[in-house]
């Protein structure tokens, strides 16, 4: 797919995703070894966006399975179109000599199968799909166990049809915000990468790439301000630090407000873009904003 890690890194940058060397290496190996890649990290550090970027550079369809508490297998893999099957059975009632086994084979045909994300990914035409299993930590442990066959063999089992294997192995990314620890069996079947908040210079480059209307000076202020928010001792004042997504959205909002230079008032007024918790918004007072905007000592 890519001749080198540098080629992959440049391709991702070409679609606006600036990956560091370590992440680029993990993605390159996942592609070369055809292994799922598990991405863990705080919300907003670019896990989901990586799947979108890979879909673009590989020119593959992106299929997304959004996980949540109570997610069932039928919602992730397949279910039968029971209404159509019932109509088929009713139409066959008057047929003389129809055997029960024959009718069962007829109603469990491919045309009555409703494909959900996992099955869609396995049966995607060439060159295959990019499958994003998003926020897998929100699903329960039985669902993790259900995923093992897919993760280990790119295969699922449908009782009425038998095993379904991938003709073109999907590029598979799993994301986790670590709301709970995943089972070791899942981790063993994946390559692993922890995504942290970016260094200031890389975040500046991301903001400049994603918000081209922002001036260099404003983008530098945004990157510096958010970096200080995440650092000690200021980070202790907040429940959750803003991610890259919030930095980019904040820069867009500041451009929309025709902001040229950050000041405590505009920071306080737009705190609801950086933070999504009432307590965190309240904690970013004009006084604290003024402190954060002061040049760092040394």
UniProtKB/TrEMBL annotation:
<feature type="domain" description="AAA+ ATPase">
    <location>
        <begin position="33"/>
        <end position="199"/>
    </location>
</feature>
<protein>
    <submittedName>
        <fullName>MoxR family ATPase</fullName>
    </submittedName>
</protein>
<dbReference type="InterPro" id="IPR003593">
    <property type="entry name" value="AAA+_ATPase"/>
</dbReference>
<dbReference type="InterPro" id="IPR011704">
    <property type="entry name" value="ATPase_dyneun-rel_AAA"/>
</dbReference>
<dbReference type="Pfam" id="PF07728">
    <property type="entry name" value="AAA_5"/>
</dbReference>
<dbReference type="InterPro" id="IPR027417">
    <property type="entry name" value="P-loop_NTPase"/>
</dbReference>
<dbReference type="InterPro" id="IPR050764">
    <property type="entry name" value="CbbQ/NirQ/NorQ/GpvN"/>
</dbReference>
């Amino acid at each position: 797919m890519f001749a080198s890690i540098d080629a992959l890194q440049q391709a991702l940058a070409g679609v606006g995703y600036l990956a560091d060397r370590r992440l680029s290496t993990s993605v390159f190996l996942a592609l070369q070894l055809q292994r799922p890649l598990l991405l863990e990290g705080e919300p907003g550090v670019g896990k989901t966006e990586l799947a979108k970027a890979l879909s673009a550079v590989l020119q593959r369809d992106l299929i997304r399975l959004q996980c949540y508490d109570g997610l069932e297998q039928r919602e992730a893999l397949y279910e039968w179109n029971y209404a159509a099957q019932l109509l088929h059975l009713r139409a066959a009632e008057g047929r003389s000599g129809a055997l029960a086994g024959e009718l069962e084979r007829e109603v469990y045909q491919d045309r009555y199968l409703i494909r959900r994300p996992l099955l869609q990914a396995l049966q995607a035409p060439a060159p295959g799909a990019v499958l994003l299993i998003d926020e897998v930590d929100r699903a329960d442990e039985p669902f993790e166990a259900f995923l093992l066959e897919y993760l280990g063999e790119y295969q699922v089992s449908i009782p009425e049809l038998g095993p379904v294997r991938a003709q073109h192995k999907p590029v598979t990314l799993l994301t986790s915000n670590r709301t709970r620890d995943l089972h070791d069996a899942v981790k063993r079947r994946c390559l692993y990468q922890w995504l942290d908040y970016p260094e200031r210079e890389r975040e500046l480059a991301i903001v400049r790439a994603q918000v081209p209307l922002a001036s260099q000076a404003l983008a530098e202020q945004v990157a510096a301000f958010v970096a200080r928010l995440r650092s000690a001792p200021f980070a202790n004042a907040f429940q959750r630090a803003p991610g890259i997504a919030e930095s980019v959205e904040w820069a867009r909002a500041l451009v929309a407000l025709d902001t040229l230079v950050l000041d405590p008032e505009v920071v306080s007024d737009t705190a609801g873009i950086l933070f999504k918790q009432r307590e965190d918004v309240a904690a970013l007072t004009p006084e604290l904003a003024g402190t954060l905007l002061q040049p760092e000592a040394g």
